[in-house]
Design brief:
By secondary structure, the chain is mainly α. The chain has one domain. It is 79% helix and 0% strand. It is flat. The two termini are 14 Å apart.
């Protein structure tokens, strides 16, 4: 959840977003 907040606070490139999404997915699963 912290990663999502960071993304909302500061703009990131689509590549970084993908990495963050992968990390969140890994944590969820």
């Amino acid at each position: 959840m912290e990663a999502v907040a960071k993304l909302n606070n500061c703009p990131t490139s689509p590549r970084k977003m993908r990495l963050v999404v992968d990390l969140i997915r890994g944590e969820r699963v």
